[in-house]
């Protein structure tokens, strides 16, 4: 019996020693990759999760020895490039994670390899640009610029140029940029009015995220409307930068550090002031809950923020269990095909979005718990677009088979990806794509407001 199988301990992760020189020792990284890849080859339990494992197993099976020692170490990078740090293998599949003696953390080993690659300067300009979400957003969200960028993203000729110059696949439907940012419309630092007779002592600070701020501000306004309806005082985080997840996925740990130093002081002040901090994009919540605490294990401010950080629906269910969430819904939603994104699943909070939507009378939720294959910037790249669509195909099929009135995902990028996948498959679907927060606002019968 393995140590994990014979132990009552939950899987645990080690702090990431990214500040130590040995972390970037390529020889040591390759040695550890050989050890872990050998164990993965003997297990193969994760073959259906993403393309990293099939790539590894194909390399082994095509080698002269049909073992990991027959694979050239220069080919290890092919596996690394296929990993987009979804964390599903660690959280749901691998039987050898700590406290097992084999001590496998595949995603964080891939992160280490990506960090070595980044430090060596082997990262394309495109990848650095795509992960600079604040810089792109601040430029593209200028009203006239936003209209021009959105028009170009719909133009075949312009997309052809973008593909040839930057390697952004012309077939990928890109999210639009909003001419008015969420943070501008929400009035920085304001407290939204609540109804008389406030019932809950809870108070919320909203970390809007780059995507909500620059691309789909309507989702943020939906969150504000739901909080206001539930008489929960809410404020906007006074200073906000990208959470750092795109830089983490690139292996740019110094970039993560710069963003951490911009975000954490303001967030820690709110956390210590008794605020629950809500991030309406799962990847952003995960960054503060898990990755930053592992990168900064001795930082008390980071720990305070992690403790105060919530997915919005995680927070709503906690309020409901305390009898503090209103259930005065006025609209039935019919059938909702709901996709749980990977970075929502690995937060270990359960299916809180599904639980919340099922509180709505006349609403049936068909839940799809599988990777959709987009992953932030990975699925927009020319070399990975086909693979992202292949990974997502089972999700597209299951969502369409549900014959829903709405298709929905906590990850707005995954939602767009699923919508495109269903449409590209030739399936005619009358369902409307709507974020779960939008669905909740609709069920309450609240006016749409600014979007």
UniProtKB/TrEMBL annotation:
> SUPFAM superfamilies in the record, alphabetically?
4Fe-4S ferredoxins
Keyword Repeat belongs to the record: yes
List the keywords (alphabetical): 4Fe-4S, Iron, Iron-sulfur, Metal-binding, Repeat
Q: Which domain of life is it from?
A: Bacteria
* Stored InterPro entries: Cys_rich_dom
Instruction: Name the Pfam families on file.
Output: CCG
Q: Name one GO molecular function term.
A: oxidoreductase activity
- Tell me the protein's name: Glycerol-3-phosphate dehydrogenase subunit C-like protein
């Amino acid at each position: 019996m393995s140590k994990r199988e014979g132990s009552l301990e939950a899987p645990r992760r080690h702090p990431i020693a990214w500040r130590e020189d040995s972390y970037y020792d390529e020889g040591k990284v390759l040695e550890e990759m050989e050890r872990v890849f050998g164990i993965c080859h003997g297990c193969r339990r994760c073959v259906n999760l993403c393309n990293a494992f099939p790539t590894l197993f194909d390399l082994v099976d095509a080698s002269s020895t049909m073992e990991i020692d027959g694979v050239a170490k220069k080919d290890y990078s092919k596996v690394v490039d296929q990993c987009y740090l979804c964390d599903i293998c660690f959280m749901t599949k691998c039987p050898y994670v700590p406290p097992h003696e084999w001590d496998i953390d595949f995603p964080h080993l891939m992160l280490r390899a990506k960090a070595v690659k980044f430090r060596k300067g082997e990262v394309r300009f495109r990848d650095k640009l795509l992960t600079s979400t604040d810089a792109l957003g601040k430029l593209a969200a200028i009203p006239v610029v936003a209209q021009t960028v959105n028009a170009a993203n719909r133009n075949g000729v312009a997309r052809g140029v973008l593909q040839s110059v930057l390697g952004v696949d012309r077939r990928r439907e890109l999210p639009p940029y909003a001419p008015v940012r969420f943070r501008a419309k929400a009035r920085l630092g304001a407290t939204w009015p609540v109804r008389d007779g406030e019932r809950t002592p809870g108070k919320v600070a909203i970390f809007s995220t780059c995507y909500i701020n620059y691309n789909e501000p309507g989702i943020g306004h939906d969150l504000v409307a739901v909080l206001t309806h539930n008489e929960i005082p809410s404020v906007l985080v006074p200073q906000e930068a990208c959470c750092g997840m795109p830089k983490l996925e690139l292996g740019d740990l110094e970039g993560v550090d710069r963003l951490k130093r911009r975000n954490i002081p303001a967030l820690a002040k709110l956390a210590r002031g008794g605020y629950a901090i809500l991030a309406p994009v799962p990847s952003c919540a995960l960054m503060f809950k898990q990755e930053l605490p592992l990168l900064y294990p001795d930082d008390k401010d980071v720990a305070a923020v992690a403790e105060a950080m919530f997915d919005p629906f995680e927070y709503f269910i906690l309020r409901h269990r305390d009898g503090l969430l209103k259930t005065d819904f006025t609209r039935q939603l019919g059938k909702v095909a709901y996709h749980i994104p990977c970075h929502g699943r690995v937060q270990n909070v359960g299916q809180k979005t599904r639980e919340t939507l099922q509180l709505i009378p006349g609403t049936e939720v068909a839940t799809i718990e599988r990777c959709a294959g987009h992953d932030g910037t990975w699925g927009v790249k020319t070399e990975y677009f086909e693979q992202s669509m292949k990974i997502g195909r089972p999700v597209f099929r299951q969502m369409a088979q549900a014959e829903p009135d709405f298709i929905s995902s906590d990850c707005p990028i995954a939602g767009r990806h699923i919508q495109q996948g269903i449409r590209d498959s030739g399936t005619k679907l009358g369902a409307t794509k709507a974020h779960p927060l939008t669905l909740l606002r609709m069920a309450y019968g609240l006016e749409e407001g600014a979007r």
